[in-house]
């Protein structure tokens, strides 16, 4: 039962990644095919875990060694895959950070409120900036690369970056500066948050690191317990008795 619940959680997480349209995850999965592939992998692992949970229960109740052996093998493969994925993420974190910078940099440069084709992606990024209270990836200066703002001599700024109460109800598109010096301005003249979203995301990860590690450790412990129990049951079953297999 525990493994079926665990499988349902993993399956649900994968579906959430694909369905989410209003968070930083949405920005990544709409911009990077690797995250979408990872979501499908999670869905597959979740479904496999649920199936293995069922087979493990069937093998334990009916004392069928081949099912318990299959259950043990699949759990071991899943656990090894999870550890390998964690190690890859840890050792490739700088590469991942560069990839994120590239994705967000391209999004900011091409941000256009009138482009309906990219509406979901742009709305997701506006949501990120509003919720984290940040601007750009490394800072507001990133928005100086936006083609529309360049054409307006920086006399406008992204509304979702605003730290002004008058823009509280506006969380997308561009807002105009009240006063522009000689018809031009820079990001330093904008009433926006100073923190870049990269720092905000890293802070969120640090604040929630304990929860993330706890969940990962809990999953690994449950899988190890399942492996130990299945191999113990296998040793206690002296011979196969296929007459115990339920008749359909």
TrEMBL record:
**Superkingdom of the source?**
Eukaryota
Looking at the keywords, is tRNA-binding present?
no
GO terms under cellular component: plasma membrane
Membrane topology note: Multi-pass membrane protein
Top-level taxonomy: Eukaryota, Metazoa, Chordata, Craniata, Vertebrata
Q: Where are the transmembrane segments?
A: 6-28, 40-61, 67-91, 211-233
Location in the cell reads: Membrane
Q: Whose protein is this, by species? A: Cathartes aura (Turkey vulture)
What this protein is called in its record is: Tetraspanin
Which keywords does UniProt give here? Answer: Membrane, Transmembrane, Transmembrane helix
Question: Mind telling me which SUPFAM superfamilies this protein's record contains?
Answer: Tetraspanin
CDD domains from the entry? CD37_CD82_like_LEL (cd03160)
């Amino acid at each position: 039962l525990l493994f079926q619940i665990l499988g349902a959680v993993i399956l649900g997480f994968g579906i959430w990644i694909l369905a989410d349209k209003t968070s930083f995850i949405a920005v990544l999965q709409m911009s990077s095919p690797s995250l979408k592939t990872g979501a499908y992998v999670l869905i597959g692992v979740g479904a496999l875990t649920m199936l293995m949970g069922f087979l493990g229960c069937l093998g334990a109740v009916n004392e069928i060694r081949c099912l318990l052996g299959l259950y043990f093998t699949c759990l071991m493969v899943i656990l090894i895959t999870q550890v390998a994925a964690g190690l890859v993420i840890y050792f490739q974190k700088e590469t991942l950070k560069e990839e994120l910078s590239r994705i967000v940099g391209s999004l900011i440069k091409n941000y256009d409120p009138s482009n309906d084709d990219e509406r979901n992606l742009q709305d997701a990024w506006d949501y990120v900036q509003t919720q984290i209270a940040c601007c750009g990836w490394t800072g507001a200066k990133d928005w100086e690369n936006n083609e529309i703002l360049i054409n307006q001599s920086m006399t406008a700024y992204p509304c979702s970056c605003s730290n002004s109460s008058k823009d509280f109800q506006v969380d997308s598109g561009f807002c105009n500066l009240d006063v522009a010096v000689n018809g031009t301005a820079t990001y330093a003249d904008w009433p926006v948050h100073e923190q870049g979203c990269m720092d905000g995301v890293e802070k969120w990860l640090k604040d929630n690191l304990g929860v993330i590690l706890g969940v990962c450790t809990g999953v690994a412990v449950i899988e190890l317990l399942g492996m130990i129990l299945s191999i113990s049951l296998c040793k206690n079953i002296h011979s196969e008795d296929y007459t115990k297999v339920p008749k359909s």
